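Worked example 3 (structure in, sequence out).
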């Protein structure tokens, strides 16, 4: 649920749900991040038979469609609470259902799911703790969580903060961009550093297996080689990719 460049600002929302139901709000994630995350999951599932994988917060289904060829034989299901997003997702993936990240809000039984893709969702949540509780509920013991989120401490954000500029990915309004580069309002409510993300996931009852970095497709073209280089050190990368298992 990160970004695709657009000049249209979303209509002024009455509440957060209105914001995400607005078709002008971008719900697609970058392909490089989707591929890296899918490869991590494919490696984790390599020795196991067909698994049930949920893409929670699937948006328009682009990320799940990108991941599907790397996960052959597994049952991939998109989940979102936005009806507009689900309509678009069903044009790209076979299965997409409505669900919410509150107590019992996912339409799956306890311990019935083998893996969860949670891509650029946690930064949009009012209550990320409840979301992690619900994900943990549906995952089987030892089940996999593949979480990705923008990095508050990305290499360019460190420089921007030193210059007194609002960091990229952070937002102070749902109506317009204020004080930072970029033109899109995407509804980010909270951001994580690599250290904070590790601690947050561990506190939710997961064991962190691996943390990697991924590039951000919105970085200006001349700076993309540097952005790819920063991925070698996840704490500096644009996007954090975390693999954890249910404890």
């Amino acid at each position: 649920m990160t970004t695709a460049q657009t000049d249209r600002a979303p209509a002024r929302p009455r509440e957060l749900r209105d914001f995400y139901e607005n078709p002008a709000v971008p719900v697609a994630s970058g392909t490089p991040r989707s591929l890296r995350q899918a490869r991590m999951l494919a490696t984790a599932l390599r020795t196991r038979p067909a698994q049930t994988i949920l893409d929670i917060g699937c948006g328009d289904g682009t990320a799940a469609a990108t991941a599907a060829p790397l996960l052959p034989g597994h049952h991939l299901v998109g989940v979102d609470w936005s009806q507009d997003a689900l309509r678009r997702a069903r044009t790209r993936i076979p299965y997409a259902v409505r669900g919410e990240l509150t107590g019992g809000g996912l339409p799956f039984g306890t311990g019935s799911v083998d893996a969860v893709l949670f891509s650029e969702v946690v930064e949009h949540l009012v209550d990320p703790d409840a979301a992690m509780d619900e994900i943990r509920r549906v995952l089987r013991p030892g089940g996999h969580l593949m979480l990705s989120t923008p990095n508050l401490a990305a290499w360019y954000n460190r420089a921007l903060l030193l210059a007194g500029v609002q960091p990229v990915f952070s937002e102070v309004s749902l109506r317009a961009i204020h004080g930072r580069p970029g033109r899109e309002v995407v509804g980010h409510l909270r951001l994580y550093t690599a250290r904070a993300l590790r601690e947050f996931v561990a506190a939710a009852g997961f064991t962190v297996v691996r943390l990697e970095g991924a590039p951000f497709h919105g970085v200006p073209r001349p700076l993309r080689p540097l952005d790819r280089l920063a991925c070698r050190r996840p704490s500096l990368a644009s996007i954090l990719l975390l693999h954890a298992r249910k404890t």
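Notes: The longest strand covers residues 139-150. The chain has one domain: 16-150+191-246.
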